[in-house]
Design a protein that fits this description.
The chain is of the alpha/beta class. It contains 38 helices and 37 strands. The strands form 8 sheets. Strands 1, 2, 3, 4, 5, 6, 7 and 10 form an 8-stranded mixed β-sheet that branches. Strands 27-28-26-29-30-25-31 form a 7-stranded parallel β-sheet, with helices on both faces. A 6-stranded parallel β-sheet has the order 32-37-36-33-35-34, with helices on both faces. Pfam families: DUF3670 (PF12419), Helicase_C (PF00271), SNF2-rel_dom (PF00176).
């Protein structure tokens, strides 16, 4: 476990880290008075160069380590009772109260990264909590990553100027950010959010750091903007490599200091050489050149331009209307405060002092001169003695709206446009509306989405349809802005011509219903890219669209005859929705919250398919960790459906597989085999392909994602418990599997949706994407009113897991050893042997590291742990909380370490050795601090009774205590008075092992289970040796891939 920190220190990003370490003896007394200047001691939790290097290598950032030398710095950290306080409980226990803590200097070892490495590291940390397993991102590092995004925005918008900076007698050419208007506000907000740990470093222990956050951020932004601008310039200016037989091109000398400065702006460090006096003079000249920008950036007002419409009482010929751009001063801290520039030239008493204070007249002259270079029309206004605006004709107004306004806004000036104008043009525009006609929907009509439907285009202006005569009249006006029915309308000559051509050629034709559907949802282009005003549909396609868009209900279906179980009302709606889309050949994504029964809804659909006499099998692909779970759930809810598990080393191949699958309704396989056996699977005519945990194909370039998209199937279904609609980058891949081509190519998707939404936070693009994808994604949460009424207060489910090869090998060895030990054993000795073997087999099923007790690596070695990790990730995404029970304290420690390293959150752990005071503290913290403490591990004996833990709404039994009463008591820590949410109980079992067998034995006697099994597991010792051999035997289905 390592927490990665970073401070901006000596104009570099200094990276250091914390690791858990035993507390060292006190080094000296810390007084509350004046600190003595002494050599600071090493921080007990200091990671050091070796651990830092290893952490960066594990994060895939090893390139940045080349040639780096570790350095030491002094970190002023909270210290209490002679001991430095760790930044997180994951490093060391944090005292309940830190009131008496003082800042004290400690020595830390770190790495000063070169410029490009700084950018690479910070980019890798954007919007993450964990950089790599066991490598957590500190709050300070996360802050610098956020600040880098702002620096990148400044560089991308060209909010910088070249400059010359002096440091210790040397001058450096620098690209410096220019902050004004909203950028200044963003920087101020960012500085206010800066964690204190970002500026804890000093060169010595003489005094703590005192630089304000705003100044530190200013220096950081300056360095990052300089690097982001300089790096492409360096690459472009690098001389080409010498060809064989030719010398490398030499860098020419400089004719002037100015030329050297321009060259230094493209050099790696930008140092300048020359006479100090001449360099100082150049520095002064550059400052004078930049003065206008500096003046406007620091001003409390900004120049604002308001476009005013022609007066109603002054009619004019089309295109010759009189518009006016009014000049105003707009307060930077209150945009609603507007002062006409005319008043600034001759201030009133109420504003005179305010305007005189910031030199309003000088500011106006500078600002008007700057804006005139962007908008030459201002020259007309500047010809007057006291300019306060300039007139425009309609074409000029249109140019201002479409071009000049954006340029002025990007340069930091205020712009106010009429309400009828939006960022994308006039709100009332010429548009095309599609009209589709089809017969009414009737039973047994055999209609489908590949059917041709009658199609026509209708032209409109706003909500009003246009006739050909009206369109021709608009074209005759030849003005980009025309007033129609009292509103200004934007008219584009190309659009009008395209509209006229469309009208002349608009003989009714046909398109497929699928194309019409895509057009209606916004997934296709109109002719000549005319704005699309929607689709008016009649007949069955209109009914289908209404159902897809939630404006009309689809039929709710009864449970299939061969389905054993009762579907809750919301599950009936979900299963009916899946069937509705399946009947139309449309892919569906069922994204219900964990525990709402995606499995049973899917099985109901498959059962209905079989009942409808669809003989082809369904292929279900899922993670290895849930293959057994699907097999068990199918046996429980659809026992009449033959199921084949295509998994493990004994699976069929080639023609044998093709022949075998014909006998089955469902074939279960794993993502690992999807691309490995793709050539076999693609030759089979599947009725449907279903992807469980469909986030496994979120990266469209992976082999398994490509294989999934290439499988032939009559319908496709994706299941996921994660909110896919929130992950724009993942959505294209999943939708491309479900409905190929619906979101366009990946390149077009990035251009139309990913970049506008992720980079620009464009709400309109997000709404368009939701309209396109919403009909195919169904996500219900446990908190939804329509769902919560259908849920039981406590929902218990079994989670079946496979063993890994290592687990299977250890399991077989323990069983073999037990067989020898049981020979000749009787009485108490026999009972002891049996209980010992049961305990060993449970440990093997949990994790090899628990059984071997060798402190070996944890990931990738346990089927149970893999599944628990997947489920915890899912519940954390929706801010749920969980109790995790195990009867082994050793396993609790393994779980705690693994979950903390994987998710970067503190995980509480209560076991038999926990003192009462600490036990009460743990319970109190969990109940009080919901958002920061989502997971609580408890040993079954220590935490199974007497505790109130209603903060959790999930209970995991990682290993089983084969007594229902004991398990129910543990579950009741969360399911009790005070619980306000429904509780999901997950009981983990390993397939093909004694865990599955014992569970079956208990289920068969459930009505009297508590009396049969007694108070513990002693009842198992009463079994005969033959029964024990059968109980412990390792069956084929235990082993995963």
């Amino acid at each position: 476990m390592l927490i990665l920190h970073a401070a901006f220190y000596e104009n570099r990003l200094f990276v250091w880290g914390e690791i858990p370490a035993p507390p060292e003896p006190p080094v000296r007394r810390v007084s509350k008075g004046r600190l003595k200047v002494v050599k600071p001691p090493p921080l007990p939790y200091d990671a050091g160069k070796e651990h830092l290097s290893k952490a960066l290598q594990e994060a895939g950032l090893s390139r940045m380590l080349n040639g780096l030398i570790s350095q030491t710095a002094v970190a002023w950290l909270p210290t209490q009772k002679n001991q430095a306080l760790a930044s997180s409980p994951l490093i060391s226990e944090v005292p309940a109260s830190c009131i008496s803590a003082v800042l004290y200097p400690w020595q830390v070892t770190g790495l000063c990264l070169p410029p490009l490495a700084e950018v690479e590291l910070l980019c890798a940390c954007v919007e993450k909590e964990v950089l790599a397993p066991g490598v957590l991102i500190g709050k300070d590092l996360a802050f610098w990553a956020q600040a880098l995004r702002f620096a990148g925005s400044l560089a991308a918008r060209q909010r910088f100027l070249p400059g010359l900076q002096e440091s210790e007698g040397t001058y450096y050419a620098r690209w410096e950010p220019v902050l004004s208007g909203t950028d200044s506000s963003v920087a101020a907000r960012l500085a206010a959010l800066m964690p204190r740990v970002c500026r804890v470093l000093t060169a010595d222990a003489a005094s703590p750091p005192v630089r304000p956050a705003a100044q530190v951020l200013e220096d950081f932004l300056g360095r990052m903007v300089d690097q982001l601008v300089r790096s492409p310039a360096i690459a472009a200016a690098e001389p080409a490599p010498a060809r064989r037989g030719r010398p490398a091109r030499k860098v020419p000398g400089f004719d002037s200091l100015h030329d050297q400065w321009l060259h230094a702006l493209q050099a790696p460090d930008g140092p300048m050489a020359g006479n100090p006096g001449a360099l100082a003079q150049l520095h002064q000249q550059i400052q004078q050149w930049r003065h206008p920008v500096t003046l406007t950036a620091a001003a409390p007002f900004r120049l604002c331009f308001r476009l005013e419409e022609p007066a109603e009482e002054a009619p004019a010929a089309p295109g010759e209307e009189h518009w006016f751009v009014r000049y105003l001063l707009q307060a930077a801290d209150d945009p609603s405060l507007l002062i006409p520039v005319k008043e600034a030239w001759n201030p009133k008493k109420s504003t005179a002092a305010l305007l005189r204070e910031f030199h309003a007249k000088e500011y106006l002259l500078v600002s008007l001169g700057q804006s005139a270079r962007l908008c030459p029309d201002l020259d007309a206004g500047l010809q007057t003695t006291l300019p306060d605006g300039h007139p425009l004709d309609t074409r000029g107004a249109f140019a201002f709206l479409t071009e000049k306004a954006l340029l002025l806004e990007q340069a930091g000036f205020g712009v106010m446009l009429p309400a009828w104008w939006s960022g994308r043009g006039a709100k009332m525009r010429l548009s095309a509306r599609a009209q589709v006609k089809s017969p009414k929907m009737t039973g047994g009509s055999g209609i489908n989405l590949d059917q041709i439907v009658r199609f026509d285009w209708q032209l409109a202006l706003g909500d009003e349809d246009l006739s050909l005569a009206e369109l021709q009249e608009l074209a005759a006006r030849k003005s980009p802005l025309v007033k129609v029915r009292g509103q200004w309308v934007q008219l584009n000559a190309e659009e009008i011509q395209a509209a006229l051509d469309l009208w002349r050629k608009r003989a009714e034709g046909g398109i497929t219903a699928r194309e019409a559907l895509q057009l209606a949802l916004g997934g296709a282009q109109t002719p000549a890219d005319l704005p699309f005003a929607g689709l008016k549909a009649e007949g069955w396609i209109g009914e289908l669209l209404a159902q897809l868009q939630g404006q009309a209900a689809f039929a709710e279906l009864p449970s299939p005859d061969n389905f054993h179980g009762i579907l809750r009302p919301y599950q009936v709606r979900g299963y009916s929705w899946l069937n509705f889309l399946r009947q139309w050949g449309l892919g569906a994504c069922l994204a219900d919250d964990m525990g709402l029964g995606k499995t049973v809804q899917t099985l109901a659909l498959i059962a209905r398919e079989r009942q409808a006499d669809h003989p082809e099998p369904v292929l279900l692909v899922c993670p290895t960790s849930v293959v057994g779970n699907w097999q068990k759930e199918a046996a429980r809810f659809t026992p009449d459906l033959p199921v084949l598990v295509h998994h493990g080393v004994t699976r069929s191949r080639g023609k044998a597989l093709a022949k075998q699958v014909k006998k089955y309704a469902m074939v279960i396989s794993s993502y690992a085999l999807l691309h490995r056996d793709f050539e076999l699977l693609k030759e089979i005519p599947w009725s449907g392909v279903i992807l469980d945990e469909a986030q496994n194909v979120k990266n469209p370039e992976t082999k398994q994602a490509r294989a999934a998209r290439a499988l032939p199937a009559a319908y496709r279904l994706a299941l996921t418990g994660t909110p896919v609609e929130n992950n724009v980058g993942d959505l294209w891949s999943i939708m491309e599997f479900l409905n190929p081509g619906f979101l366009g190519s990946q390149t077009a998707f990035k251009r139309s949706f990913f970049i506008p939404i992720q980079a620009n936070r464009d709400p309109e693009a997000a709404q368009r994407l939701q309209r396109l994808t919403g009909p195919f994604i169904l996500r219900r949460l446990k908190t939804d009113p329509k769902v919560i009424a259908d849920l039981p207060e406590k929902n218990e489910m079994k989670v079946f897991c496979n063993l890994t090869k290592e687990q299977a090998s250890l399991y077989a060895a323990v069983v073999e050893e037990a067989a020898r030990a049981l020979e000749g054993a009787d009485g108490i000795q026999r009972k002891g042997v049996i209980l010992g073997v049961l305990s060993k087999l449970k440990q093997v099923c949990n994790h090899p590291a628990q059984f071997l007790a060798d402190n070996s690596p944890v990931p990738g070695r346990s089927g149970k742990l893999a599944r628990l990790t997947e489920m915890v990730e899912e519940l954390l995404q929706v801010k749920d909380r969980a109790l995790i029970f195990t009867q082994f304290a050793e396993m609790g420690k393994i779980l705690q370490r693994h979950l903390q390293e994987t998710f970067g959150r503190e995980v509480l752990f209560l076991h038999g050795g926990t003192p009462k005071k600490q036990r009460d503290d743990l319970v109190g913290r969990f109940q009080a601090d919901g958002s920061r403490l989502p997971l609580f591990i408890l040993s079954l004996k220590a935490g199974g009774t007497g505790l109130n833990l209603t903060g959790a709404n999930h209970v995991f039994h990682f290993d089983r205590w084969w007594n229902p009463a004991v398990e129910n008591q543990a579950t009741d820590r969360a399911y009790r008075i005070g619980q306000t949410r429904d509780v999901q109980v997950h009981k983990f079992l390993c397939l093909g092992t004694l865990e599955e067998k014992i569970d079956e034995m208990i289920e068969r006697k459930k009505e009297v289970a508590e009396q049969v099994v007694g108070a513990g597991e002693g009842w198992l010792t009463e079994l005969s040796t033959a029964e024990l051999h059968d109980l412990m035997a390792l069956r084929r289905e235990a082993l995963g891939d």
